[in-house]
Write a structure and sequence with these properties.
With about 400 residues, this protein is an alpha/beta fold. The chain folds into two domains: about 5-35 and about 290-410, Aspartate Aminotransferase, domain 1 (Alpha-Beta Complex), CATH 3.90.1150; about 40-280, Type I PLP-dependent aspartate aminotransferase-like (Major domain) (Aspartate Aminotransferase, domain 2). The chain has 13 helices and 17 strands.
Amino acid sequence: MQPFNPMTIRPLFPALAQEVAGRPAVFFDGPGGTQVPQSVITAIADYLTHSNANTHGVFITSQRTDAVIAGAHAAMADLLGCAPDEVFFGQNMTSLTFALSRAIGRELQAGDEIIVTRLDHDANVAPWRALSERGVVIREVDIDTEDCTLDMDNLAALIGPRTRLVAVGYASNAVGTINDIPRIVEWAHQVGALVFVDAVHYAPHGLIDVKALDCDFLACSVYKFFGPHVGVIYGKREHLQRFQPYKVRPAADTVPERWMTGTQNHEGLAGVIAAIDYLASLGQPAPDRRAALTTAMQQIAAYERTLAVQLIEGMLAIPGLTFYGIREPERFAWRTPTVSFRLAHLSPRAVATALAERGIFVWDGNYYALSLSERLGVESSGGMVRVGLVHYNTAEEVDVFLTVLRELTNG
């Protein structure tokens, strides 16, 4: 496998050429949404120029739109390792998860149990909590606050004969922790429970193989992996056929169309294809797109781990910095290059503001990982500062960030 060189792909991302106060902008805001390559921008513009229409018409622009939708299903299937009819699209992951939870809720009874975690983004918590209105009991898995990992003993203890679904994140959008999804799926399936995996944060950082995971559902957001604002859910075909979605009467009742409420974001779906093709281009030559994506994501993961080592080692050497999450390099296979921290004498908002003034873009607050922020005891004092790297980031940018962080610490 060839080493990944970010300088070969950075020119493909127009946004990366921006400057702030005469300095190159440093995009360390990836967990909130990545920048996109020119090919994605071109694909969206080309759709709106040549194919803009609704579906299933007899005229050429409608036929082109049908082809774009089919192409998006095929592209996502290659990215996730499933069949094209096992993925459906919508406005965003949050909206899709609420829609799916309502459909699953139709079959649940009072006293049935759903397990959520304190590590997750609230998009994988609130839709399931809403089912408490039907008498469903919500159980919450605790975390180890020392390294922000799931308390697996607690999870095992919560799974029981009334468990109907386990909702868990593939990776934490706040602290980067990667969860042991195969083990969680095995435990849930032993009692006949479904597993819903939020892979929004994991998708830009590693290969996803839903068949190997054996999860029942998995959600992504394309704008987190170099594409437009489109949400995606994978579901085993048997489940997509079994559960009854809420939909308008004339809409098709076939899979996956029955889950795609209303007119889709067709230009966004054109961008989906382009984003996945961009990732596949990093793994060429290869016999097919799935093979190319496999190689590309392996290269990305290896490169990002070098950035994570540089970033975390540098942060841990700064006095007065509180670091949240896995910090030992030998355990970095269980984290993404996303970290959260606090400085002793500055609020998270003050740190993010000072960095922004120097052209370094980071997030502050809870990033919708509300249960985690509360569990760590930082919610009432502004949350944390989050730094999230992706493969277009560089070692030089990490050095710039660490230099500024040391300046802030020294006052």
